[in-house]
């Protein structure tokens, strides 16, 4: 565990990095401030510091690849990691007869790396951590909803692979927990930024001779946005204390849904100006929509939870005092 | 006493005394039965010490963190031993007495409440004073040795059972708003008090009208400073949104669990069930941090309005799910269990009304948490 004052200093330097840089420049800045060491030493602290700031700055970095690799228990790696397809947290690879088939996504780290890590299901619900040569993959850079994110679509029908020397595929669920936590923080960081934009707009925008922040309809929409964010935030923060798959999945679902609720209310308050491409709202909105779909969406995670509750007819006892 | 020890020993005790603690009535029971059950459980818990942990020694407590109170109420609610509505009065009114009553008065009175000897009520709302509490009109006029109170209160829960009332009365000029209110601790058997229960739509007469006709209240029964009753009210309201809210959250989890056990296959979709469970978890996580903030001695304030919005939403979500999932019970069942679901469903409609409406909570969030300034 890192000391409190150290955490504050570290947070300040990470904040500066995310506010000034994005993409490869941010990767370099994060390396320089020691974020990778922090991730190795205390993954939960490193994740809880970077991802809210990255979300608030609408920045992109290599961090998600490293978070998944750390969750998998891999030693520090410069390789890219293949992520699950949209809406699911299932491992993106499947092994048959010593070859791997892949249906997944990646960050732009995949375009730079020679090799990529891919977690692949094989018989009896077991997983293998494999490394594949990126030249054996079909990699399609995606523009899509959020071009600034730099997403790539990754497929392979029949690729050779090497087993990762110091990894064990049983850690996939730990990697999913850490990735869901990171993404939840990033989503809420983006949602708070959107709320802050809408709040400032409400205070500045004059109609009928007064700021629209005086109108109860506007105030209540902003209040609604804050409730959605804070309700999700409480669960996301608790994952650190109780890092179970159940809690991380619920945190991710609440963050994704809460951020979309907040975005809907805030866009209404931002009205015309928020609908222009020059206003930053749409960039946050695009990011929220995309991040919601990575490692399980609010919808898919909620359906999974509901199925389990209806099947077991029991409510798991989470977060005891 | 630390929480792990308290939890373990309390859980064992609750198992051991399960047959004595369980309500004698089926379902929700009548209000008389609920009150008898509350008194029985509080007395047993007080005698065994559980009800005294988390309260200061000067009011009959055994000291320790308020977290212990949060856990006691959670355990009692989760086992269907008490109803959160009747149990919550202690958590709302005892802290107010401890903060604002003269020490001798608090030392004399609070143990009666903890032990279950007495029910207390809270005289805030009036026919003309709902959301706008500062406009209250019930008047207290200064006499040589105290006050004479005249006016009308409404929505006073359990007034027909109550021995005492924490009453807000106008002591300043008519237009003094929040600056001219004084809090008084009134004996409900004082001459001049008339209680008239109202039957509410959930079939219970827990809410009452209370008429005060020139009621004498000794000066020692003033809570806090004269004309500073607003501070008492502002201190009390966050308590409604802390420990007792945690207890109510535990009750809602229990009800969702009961619903999951009772629902026929395919009556509910996975999506709606999952979403309700998530809304309860968000409430739990949020309220849990509030419990720890309170235990650390932090002053609770406007941020508890978020807890309140979360619980009102979650409560209505759980009960909406019930009316869809077990419609034959809730709508046309006439047994005690169905009657209970029906009453709870109806009661949940008030979750966005009592204790500060959903709109008032959002006003507080907008002004105090989002710093949007006033709305005029």
List descriptors.
heterodimer, A: alpha+beta, Butyryl-CoA Dehydrogenase, subunit A, domain 2, 3 domains, eight-stranded mixed β-sheet, two-stranded antiparallel sheet, 10 strands, 15% strand, B: four-stranded mixed β-sheet, four-stranded antiparallel β-sheet, 13 helices, globular
Give the total of beta strands of chain A: 10
H/E element order of chain A:
HHHHHEEEHEEEEEHEEHHHH
Shape designation of chain A:
globular
Strand content of chain B: 15-25%
Structural class of chain B: alpha+beta
**Which of globular, elongated, flat, extended, rod-shaped describes the shape of chain B?**
globular
**The CATH homology group name of the largest domain in chain A:** Butyryl-CoA Dehydrogenase, subunit A, domain 3
The CATH topology of the largest domain in chain A is given as Butyryl-CoA Dehydrogenase, subunit A, domain 3
Strand proportion of chain A, as a percent range, falls in 5-15%
What Rg of chain B do the Cα atoms give?
21 Å
Sheet/helix structural class of chain A: alpha+beta
Fraction of residues in H or I helices of chain A: 55-70%
Structure explained in plain terms:
The complex is a heterodimer of chains A (321) and B (376). In chain A, the strands form two sheets. In chain A, strands 1, 2, 3, 4, 5, 6, 7 and 8 form an eight-stranded mixed β-sheet that branches. In chain A, strands 9-10 form a two-stranded antiparallel ribbon. Chain A has 321 residues and is α+β, with helices and mostly antiparallel strands. In chain A, strand 2 (93-96) and strand 3 (99-106) form a beta hairpin. Helices cover 55% and strands 15% of the residues of chain A. Chain A has helices spanning 4-20, 24-33, 35-41, 43-57, 63-71, 109-112, 172-204, 216-239, 245-274, 281-293, 298-312, and strands at residues 80-81, 93-96, 99-106, 115-122, 126-133, 138-141, 152-159, 162-163, 206-207, 210-211. The longest helix of chain A is centred in the middle third of the chain and has 33 residues, at 172-204. In chain A, helix 1 runs parallel beside helix 4, helix 3 crosses helix 4 (43-57) and helix 4 (43-57) runs parallel beside helix 7 (172-204). The mean pLDDT of chain A is 95. Chain A folds into three domains: 4-71, no CATH class; 80-167, Butyryl-CoA Dehydrogenase, subunit A, domain 2; 171-312, Butyryl-CoA Dehydrogenase, subunit A, domain 3. Chain B has a four-stranded mixed β-sheet with strand order 1-4-5-8. A four-stranded antiparallel β-sheet of chain B has the order 2-3-7-6, with no helix packed on it. The longest helix of chain B has 26 residues, at 270-295. Chain B is an alpha+beta fold and 376 residues long. In chain B, helix 5 packs antiparallel against helix 7 (229-240), helix 8 runs antiparallel to helix 9 (270-295) and helix 10 packs across helix 12 (336-348). Chains A and B meet through helix 7, helix 8, helix 9 and helix 11 of A and helix 4, helix 8, helix 9, helix 10 and helix 13 of B.
């Amino acid at each position: 565990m890192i000391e409190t004052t150290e955490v504050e200093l570290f947070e300040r330097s990470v904040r500066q990095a995310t506010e000034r840089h994005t993409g490869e420049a941010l990767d370099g800045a994060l390396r320089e401030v020691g974020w990778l060491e922090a991730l190795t030493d205390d993954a939960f602290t490193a994740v809880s510091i970077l991802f809210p700031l990255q979300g608030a700055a609408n920045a992109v970095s290599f961090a998600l690849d490293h978070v998944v690799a750390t969750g998998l228990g891999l030693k520090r790696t410069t390789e890219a990691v293949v992520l699950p397809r949209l809406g699911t947290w299932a491992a993106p690879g499947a092994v048959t007869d010593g070859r791997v088939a892949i249906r997944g996504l990646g960050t732009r780290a995949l375009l730079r790396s020679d090799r990529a890590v891919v977690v692949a299901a094989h018989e009896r619900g077991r997983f293998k951590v494999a490394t594949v040569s990126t030249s054996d993959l079909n990699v399609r850079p995606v523009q899509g909803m959020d071009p600034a994110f730099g997403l790539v679509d990754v497929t392979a029908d029949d690729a050779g692979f090497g087993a990762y020397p110091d990894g064990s595929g049983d850690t996939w669920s730990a990697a999913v927990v850490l990735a869901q936590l990171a993404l939840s923080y990033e989503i809420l960081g983006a949602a708070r930024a959107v709320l802050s934009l809408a709040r400032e707009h409400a205070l500045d925008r004059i109609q009928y001779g007064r700021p629209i922040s005086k109108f109860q309809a506007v105030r209540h929409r902003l209040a609604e946005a804050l409730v959605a964010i804070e309700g999700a935030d409480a669960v996301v923060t608790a994952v650190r204390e109780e890092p179970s798959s159940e809690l991380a999945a619920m945190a991710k679902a609440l963050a994704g849904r809460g951020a979309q609720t907040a975005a809907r209310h805030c866009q209404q308050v931002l009205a015309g100006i928020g609908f222009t491409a020059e206003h930053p709202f749409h960039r946050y909105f695009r990011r929220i929509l995309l991040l919601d779909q990575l490692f399980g969406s609010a919808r898919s995670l909620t359906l999974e939870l509901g199925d389990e509750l209806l099947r077991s007819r029991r409510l798991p006892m989470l977060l005891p005092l | 006493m630390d929480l792990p020890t308290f939890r373990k020993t309390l859980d064992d005790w609750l198992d051991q005394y399960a047959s004595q603690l369980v309500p004698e009535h089926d379902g929700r029971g009548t209000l008389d039965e609920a009150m008898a059950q509350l008194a029985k459980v509080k007395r047993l818990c007080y005698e065994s010490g559980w009800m005294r942990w988390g309260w200061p020694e000067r009011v009959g407590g055994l000291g320790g963190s308020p977290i212990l109170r949060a856990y006691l109420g959670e355990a009692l609610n989760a086992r269907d031993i008490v109803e959160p509505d009747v149990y919550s009065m202690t958590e709302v009114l005892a802290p107010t007495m401890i903060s604002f009553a003269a020490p001798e008065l608090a030392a004399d009175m609070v143990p009666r409440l903890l032990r279950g000897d007495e029910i207390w009520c809270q005289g805030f709302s009036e026919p003309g004073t709902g959301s706008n509490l500062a406009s209250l009109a019930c008047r207290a006029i200064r006499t040589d040795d105290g006050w004479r109170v005249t006016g009308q209160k409404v929505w006073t829960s359990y007034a027909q059972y109550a021995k005492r009332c924490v009453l807000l009365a106008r002591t300043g000029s008519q237009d003094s708003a929040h600056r001219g209110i004084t809090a008084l601790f009134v004996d409900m058997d004082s001459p001049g008090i008339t209680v008239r229960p109202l039957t509410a739509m959930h079939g219970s007469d827990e809410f009452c009208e209370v008429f005060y006709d020139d009621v004498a209240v000794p000066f020692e029964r003033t809570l806090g400073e004269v004309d500073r009753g607003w501070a008492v009210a502002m201190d009390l309201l966050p308590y409604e949104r802390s420990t007792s809210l945690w207890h109510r959250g535990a009750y809602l989890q229990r009800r969702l669990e009961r619903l999951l056990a009772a629902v026929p296959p395919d009556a509910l979709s996975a999506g709606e069930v999952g979403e309700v469970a998530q809304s309860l978890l968000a409430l739990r996580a949020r309220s849990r941090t509030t419990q720890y903030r309170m235990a650390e001695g932090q002053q609770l304030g406007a941020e508890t309005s978020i807890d309140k919005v979360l619980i009102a939403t979650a409560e209505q979500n759980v009960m909406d799910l019930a009316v869809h999932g077990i419609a034959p019970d809730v709508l046309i069942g006439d047994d005690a269990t169905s009657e209970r679901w029906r009453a709870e469903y109806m009661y949940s409609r008030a979750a966005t009304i009592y204790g500060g409406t959903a709109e008032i909570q959002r006003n507080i969030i907008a002004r105090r948490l989002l710093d949007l300034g006033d709305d005029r």
